[in-house]
Design goal:
Arc Repressor Mutant, subunit A; 2 domains; single chain; alpha+beta; 53% helix
């Protein structure tokens, strides 16, 4: 691994660019003088003095007296990991406050749009945390396209969702995947129906007590979350009309 790559990794542990360069130079040289650290890191000596003072305070470097000289040495890199754990703990302590600010800001936002497969998957994972036993769970989907973007994730997600004891009703596009999923529906505590052969969908509609979610399979893969109560009720009524029209 090249030096610049190592320095970049050190920065990811919470050090600034100059701090990472001074620490890496000190680690490479062993106990040494500020002058040599400055030359090795290509940083001005006055700046190195300031940086070393900060790294000493944080426990990332130490002083080694050698006669009348003071040499400076980097501590074991594991101290960087300890610092990372401290930052994680401080973040966990601050998280309730941050979430309260987020919820306050988001309170008036009823429509949210996310783009990209990871963002889509995050919405699905969050949905599992919100759903409660006996909640209505209504879906219209093309299961072939729904699964295709990431079979491992979506099949596992379906298994987790099936354990929540929901009132699940699903309408699938009629294709090989839809037929297979409708056969397996009882194993996942689902009631399912198939759309007429001439009907096709390129998005999923998921309706829960608190959300109506539209998941677009085609590029750009995206998901729209509607939290408007009026919209959710409208989607529920549309689903019921479609459900009752299918055999």
């Amino acid at each position: 691994m090249r030096n610049e790559q190592i320095i970049a990794l050190i920065k990811e542990l919470g050090l600034s660019d100059v701090e990472a360069r001074v620490y890496f130079a000190s680690l490479s040289l062993g106990p040494t003088t500020v002058l040599k650290i400055a030359r090795s890191s290509s940083i001005k000596r006055a700046t190195v003095y300031t940086v070393i003072d900060e790294l000493l305070k944080r426990g990332y470097m130490r002083i080694e007296p050698r006669g009348f000289k003071r040499l400076f040495a980097a501590e074991n890199p594991r101290v960087l990991e300890h610092g990372l754990e401290d930052r994680r703990e401080r973040f966990r302590q601050a998280l309730p406050t941050l979430e309260a600010l987020y919820n306050q800001r988001e309170g008036s936002s009823v429509i949210k749009y996310y783009e990209g497969l990871p963002a889509v998957q995050n919405v699905y994972e969050s949905l599992l945390e919100e759903l409660r036993p006996k909640d209505d769970y209504m879906v219209i989907a093309n299961m072939e396209k729904w699964v295709a973007s990431d079979p491992d994730f979506f099949l596992k997600w379906r298994e987790k969702r099936s354990k929540l004891n929901l009132k699940s009703r699903l309408i699938f596009e009629t294709n090989e995947a839809g037929k297979k999923f409708i056969e397996l529906a009882p194993n996942h505590f689902e009631t399912a129906k198939l759309l007429p052969l001439e009907r096709h969908v390129d998005t999923s509609l998921v309706v829960t007590p608190s959300k109506a979610i539209i998941h677009q399979y085609t590029e750009p893969v995206s998901i729209l979350v509607n939290e408007s109560k009026a919209s959710i009720n409208l989607y529920k009524e549309m689903f019921e009309i479609m459900w009752n029209s299918l055999t």
